[in-house]
Structure formats: structure tokens, C-alpha cells
Recover the amino acids of this structure.
């Protein structure tokens, strides 16, 4: 991973356009080709990014850019779409590279991991006719718990699974959806926030963002409880 701290401006063009004015930021260039632009705020969500497959080239600025103080230009071009991220560097304060090796991935809480396995096996809980595409679908910002395909319609469904669903989980799924919907082979991607218990504030936020909520009955999914035989 290459980590660059620099004064830079950033322009994104493609299906949408966005501009970040000149400021000091952290630029991450990962081994998978992804490039992420971070500020000292906003938790771990990047200000902008380009996910793989993409290709980054570094070039010298043209005379007009050089006159404006630009010392180098990064152009990150997605290989399957017209999306492009252009970073104009004015001053580089640090530039280091590190070999992080192979990451073993997130080790989830036992119940949460089991919920994921059970929902993948019982994907019809998302709705009749849904089919499983993959568990732990990889993205540049982490794996999506479950990626499924709805019946009779294009696109996909991304599912984030928690034991207790709170606002942070909805924010996490929102970031996945923003990234996945950039891929024309997946879009449109809708979200399902699944948990044993979903807090009211999280449900309100999810509904406002068009994310469906699904309450999971762990015992029923394991086959140790029959909800239809309950008195309450």
C-alpha cells in the first residue's frame, strides 16, 4: 500500500461529477488498484475513491497547471466505464509504501457469522425467488456480507448482517451501496439491513435511504424453535 500525504485537489467525472478544492489530504493507493482520498474527519469514509478494475498513471502537469502550482497529476481511469479520478498534487509531505501481506479478513462474532451462513442457506428470507450470488462479496472498502439477486428484475441485493442493528450498520451498508452501484455489471443494487434486533433510529435512517430492514429469528433459522407454534 502506498500512502501519500499531499496538498491536492481532486476531480471525479463519469456517471457523476465531483470536485474537492485544494487541501491537505491522505491518498491511499492499494495493491488491488483502488485509490482512496481521505481527510482528517468523516470517520473512515473516503471523500472520494476509484474502485478496481482501474489503472493509475502519473504525469507532469501542463504549463497552465504548473503555473497554478501543480507538481504532479494522477489520473485514475476505470477500465470498464468512463469514470475517471484526477488528482492534482501541489506539495507532497510524505510518500511511503508498505507491503501488508495477505490479510486473513474480518473474524466476526460467532453468532453474527452463523447468521450470515444461515441466511445464505435460507436466502428466501429476503423474499421468494432470491438467489445467492456470494457470501463476503469483496469491495475496496471491505466485504459485503451477502450479495443476492432478486427474482425477475435486474440488479442485485446487498445484505449487511448484525446481531444488533444500529445507525453505524446502516452507514456501513450505505457506503457499500454507493460503491457497488458504480459497477454497471451489478447496478442497480438495493440494500437489506438484517439483524436480530434493529434499533428504532437505525430503522428510520434505513427507511429514509431506501434500505429494507429484516429482523432475523436466530433460533427459528437454526431449527430449534418454531415461531408458528408460539402463543406469543
Amino acid at each position: 500500500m502506498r500512502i501519500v500525504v499531499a496538498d491536492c485537489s481532486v476531480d471525479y467525472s463519469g456517471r457523476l461529477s465531483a470536485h474537492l478544492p485544494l487541501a491537505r489530504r491522505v491518498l491511499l493507493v492499494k495493491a488491488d488498484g483502488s485509490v482512496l482520498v481521505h481527510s482528517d474527519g468523516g470517520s473512515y469514509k473516503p471523500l472520494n475513491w476509484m474502485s478496481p478494475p482501474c489503472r493509475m498513471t502519473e504525469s507532469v502537469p501542463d504549463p497552465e497547471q504548473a503555473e497554478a502550482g501543480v507538481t504532479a497529476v494522477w489520473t485514475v481511469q476505470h477500465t470498464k466505464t468512463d469514470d475517471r479520478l484526477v488528482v492534482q498534487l501541489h506539495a507532497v509531505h510524505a510518500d511511503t509504501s508498505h507491503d501488508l501481506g495477505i490479510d486473513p479478513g474480518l473474524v466476526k462474532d460467532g453468532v453474527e457469522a452463523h447468521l450470515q451462513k444461515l441466511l445464505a442457506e435460507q436466502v428466501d428470507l429476503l423474499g421468494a425467488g432470491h438467489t445467492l450470488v456470494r457470501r463476503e462479496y469483496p469491495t475496496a472498502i471491505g466485504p459485503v456480507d451477502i450479495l443476492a439477486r432478486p427474482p425477475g428484475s435486474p440488479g442485485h441485493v446487498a445484505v449487511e448482517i448484525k446481531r444488533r442493528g444500529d445507525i453505524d450498520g446502516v452507514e456501513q451498508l450505505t457506503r457499500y451501496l454507493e460503491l457497488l452501484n458504480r459497477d454497471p455489471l451489478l447496478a442497480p443494487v438495493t440494500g437489506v439491513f438484517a439483524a436480530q434486533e434493529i434499533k428504532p433510529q437505525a430503522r428510520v435512517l434505513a427507511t429514509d435511504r431506501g434500505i429494507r430492514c429484516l429482523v432475523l429469528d436466530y433460533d427459528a433459522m437454526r431449527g430449534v424453535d418454531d415461531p408458528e407454534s408460539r402463543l406469543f
Q: What stands out?
A: Residues 167-180 form the longest helix (14 residues). The CA atoms of residues 62 and 121 lie 56 Å apart.
